[in-house]
């Protein structure tokens, strides 16, 4: 049974397909057509809806945008689903709606409901956002008509006010309803080992023991967390998925802890939620995180999913490689640790055994001698996939390079490190011109990338070499040279 | 009707005036988009949102998996056996016309014996759900005897593959001048196409009616053509097909001819099964099967004097048209009409080829070939500037149409009322061109990695369909007995605000509040034989037609009012203002007069018509006036490029644009901003890629990148020029849909300016479009190979080039 709120209405659903998307549910089951399908792949944001969820102690609601076209019904359990039809109160427009009207922010109007929902979430999240905050909040919404200027202005204007609407007024009743669902979940327990959630072939385990059993009982089932990539299997490739094991309710996969020497991130934590901890310890990853897809994707996609996917163009694996991260895996009985460099064994293949899952990712802290930078190069700055990603982490002692750890994306069949770079540079004086030339030469020859829709092999190689040049320039002590056309942090 | 609405409530509604005492919604004011409130609420319905008729079924199409060859077998047994399938059709099942080419033949409804491009629709399937239909469509087995596909301009030329004959026009004798001139330069440019990426994909709903009648709900810029093609495919008369089009979720030219095929397929399946059928293309199918902006491959030779003034121009434009003519003849013509942009090209020879390739048939897209021609003029200006060592803005100003150059275009039209000299002066001052030119140079001297570039470019765009017969429009205006008015016209609403402006025109004519006007969906049974909403002409044509209808009604009402007052002879003095109809000291509220007129048996409904005057172009001689007038704009862009990666940002944009006497400044500014960003996308990140088999590989939004919100320039100043149209257009406004698209050429020129800074502006970089970071980096690397290292070398280089 999936229990949730549609605005103020309590809803229970069962007997729906495991691969039913939230967008299909809204349009085809609820017959509400304000939410649009533009791409069915999480790229355009026309389908954006908001999921409001309680914070840990049920004292406040957190408003999260998601792309309903690639969200599964398991994701709405114990949450409040809000879509565009819920915002206006009869003829009275919600403030974000009125602001967009006043600023002439809609033309053809097809993207508009999605923008409205992203504006609504920001309105409830951030008072007094600046222009960059607005751009980040709306980074997952494409508009082909307006050129965005009026939408930016409308959002800035409406967010000058403290959130005050039906939703804030109903917060306590919403919280208590959602709390009742959660309480019922825990009281109901998990005695069967699996919680079939009442829906056809959608299993929602709540602890590692029942997850292990679910995997054992359903050896062909896919594990799903954020579903931002897996959903394309049915929305784009039109393949039905028989059985899904959702990790959405595995609280033990969502912990985010630190040890004396490392940060440990639970695998099923959305990227958005781990961002503060990650950037606290690794502020140099700010650009990579900001440019990790779009906000609605980061609101769902998890670090575990990004790693398990093993895509050569995933955003986080190059950083994890450069940071010497370890993948903590589990099968319900035994946990083990796999160095990230040994985790990616082939094109979209990992070292995970069939009964294992990723429990967490452990990233060791940097010491004072380490310099870290993460670069992503793509056609478009926002919501694009890397042509090349390069993350450099070098240890310098008294000006001499002691260790080079680097991770790269878009250059091979898997995310890759580059031992040759380490071998060539160790012992060299970091500030020497020879250091930059040597690194460039190594990187020009280290990989044999492919030509594809994003870039040619030649461009990838050249840029890889030039990113080392950029890194070198940015880490010289006496430099004031501008190396970037855009600051992302 | 026995009883009319109580006139007390009419009093109230007719007095819904703004605080100024004027009715709201007059022309020349910034009215909200007529659908804005419904759009933000999600209650504005698109075709996929219409409540489905009982028993609606869903269609999907099966695509070819190769680019060219003879079909030897089509096995659809697995499709028929697939779960939920009701019907499957191929071209053999079409009762009427099998070809739906809009102007010339060449576009079979479904593949007819041969495959002409990768992804060509071969069959259609009808099923009980969208998913079932789409899954079944993957199961067709099409066997093709493959042939070598033609996939580039070079291959098309080699095989003399053209979809239409080449065309040529020009003035004087450029060859002689080019042969003897001291200064000549040549250049070539590959210009990428563009995916429309309307957020709402192609969709049609066909609802069968009694016997063989058919109603179509479609997302189309051209309902009349959909009506005609559906009738032809079904082999019925046009009067048995009704097409209804309320709004599109974006069109941009991509739903001018490209919407018809899906309507026809839905109608065919609806007709066969006597069930309502909806066909909505998933995004990747939409991207494979619908035409795009034409890629072009163009080249020029120009001769110029020591001041950079052009003496002669030879230009070849090559439109890559795909497999069929579609609208390519007119598109390549429009490219040819715009290779001059705002400049006098001297003696000229302009030739345009329409190349046939085994690709989807490229089609209309905002600017309709104009951008692909106009960019050549700007390429020439930059090339001359670098060659002559003169600032590009000076070269541009020296070559503008005018007394010191010439006023006759290569196609023999006199350029009248040219606003570019004054508009350039205005922007140059407002955006501080020369100061920022110095600042840019200074920045670049001190910044070895990041370089800035600056460019100011003009736009002159011809307004009118070049196919003269399309420059007509019709309208139908009803006044109901409560004084509310329903306006119908032949134009379609795709977000551009056409219906808003039309509503304002009607409100203005009757002097009543905009809330009294309802502009309805576009329907072929209300206004027949309409032109597509294209060529930026929607308001110019339909606005005039609506105005004409309003004038007719006003005459009847004025006569009625005058007669009522016993002043029949004074009917011409009756005015319509502030919700009243006035004659001398007598006035009556508009609804009261309507009721009186009804009782007097005055017709309260009429049609209106308009045809654009002054058009006289002879294509055979390449001489005459294809355009009613020109719309102008000027734009200045500043960019930063990263010479290590080729990444760049557009930091600041200043625009002054000419919309004549704006009907609705907010909507016009929206058009300008939106067009600019779309044009910027075309020239920067929007990169169409086909693989060696001819398959489109930039087939979704993950691999084809339109501008995102962060690409909006941080400083983006847009101003209307505010000078009324010298021609008698609707309230002396000007068309605005397409012209500002080409303002984005300033971004491309600014990128080249930044790259050229590496050579101290001695070399004009080769930068084909789209100028992706990869292309920019290649141009940078190429420049660095030839780069001069100091201003001293620059002088030597300049001397060398002027000797050459």
Automatic annotation (TrEMBL), chain A:
**By its UniProt entry, which InterPro entries does this protein fall under?**
2Fe-2S-bd (IPR002888), 2Fe-2S-bd_dom_sf (IPR036884), 2Fe-2S_ferredoxin-like_sf (IPR036010), 2Fe-2S_ferredoxin-type (IPR001041), 2Fe2S_fd_BS (IPR006058), Ald_Oxase/xanthine_DH-like (IPR016208), Beta-grasp_dom_sf (IPR012675), CO_DH_flav_C (IPR005107)
Transmembrane domains' residue ranges? none
The record's top EC class is oxidoreductase
Q: Where is the FAD-binding PCMH-type domain?
A: 195-368
| E.C. number | 1.17.1.4
Per UniProt, which keywords does this protein have? FAD, Flavoprotein, Iron, Metal-binding, Oxidoreductase, Ubiquinone
Mind telling me which CDD domains this protein's record contains? Answer: fer2
Record bears the keyword Oxidoreductase: yes
Q: Which SUPFAM superfamilies match?
A: 2Fe-2S ferredoxin-like, CO dehydrogenase flavoprotein C-terminal domain-like, CO dehydrogenase ISP C-domain like, FAD-binding/transporter-associated domain-like
Family annotation (Pfam families): CO_deh_flav_C, FAD_binding_5, Fer2, Fer2_2
The name under which this protein is listed is: Xanthine dehydrogenase small subunit
This chain's source organism reads: Alteromonas genovensis
TrEMBL record, chain B:
* Cofactor(s) it depends on: FAD; Mo-molybdopterin cytosine dinucleotide; Mo-molybdopterin; [2Fe-2S] cluster
* SUPFAM superfamilies attached to this UniProt entry: CO dehydrogenase molybdoprotein N-domain-like, Molybdenum cofactor-binding domain
Q: Which UniProt keywords apply?
A: 2Fe-2S, Iron, Iron-sulfur, Metal-binding, Molybdenum, Oxidoreductase
Pfam families given in the database record: Ald_Xan_dh_C, MoCoBD_1, MoCoBD_2
Task: Return the InterPro entries for the record.
Answer: Ald_Oxase/Xan_DH_a/b, Ald_Oxase/Xan_DH_a/b_sf, Ald_Oxase/xanthine_DH-like, AldOxase/xan_DH_MoCoBD1, AldOxase/xan_DH_MoCoBD2, AldOxase/xan_DH_Mopterin-bd_sf, Xanthine_DH_Mopterin-bd_su
Q: Aldehyde oxidase/xanthine dehydrogenase a/b hammerhead domain: from which residue to which, for each copy?
A: 41-148
Q: What GO molecular function annotations does the UniProt record carry, in alphabetical order?
A: 2 iron, 2 sulfur cluster binding; iron ion binding; molybdenum ion binding; xanthine dehydrogenase activity
What EC number(s) does this enzyme carry?
1.17.1.4
Asked whether the UniProt record includes Repeat among its keywords, one would answer no
Q: What class of enzyme is it?
A: oxidoreductase
Keyword field contains Iron-sulfur: yes
Give the family this protein belongs to, as stated in its UniProt record.
Belongs to the xanthine dehydrogenase family.
Record protein name field: Xanthine dehydrogenase molybdopterin binding subunit
Q: Please report the organism this UniProt entry assigns to the protein.
A: Alteromonas genovensis
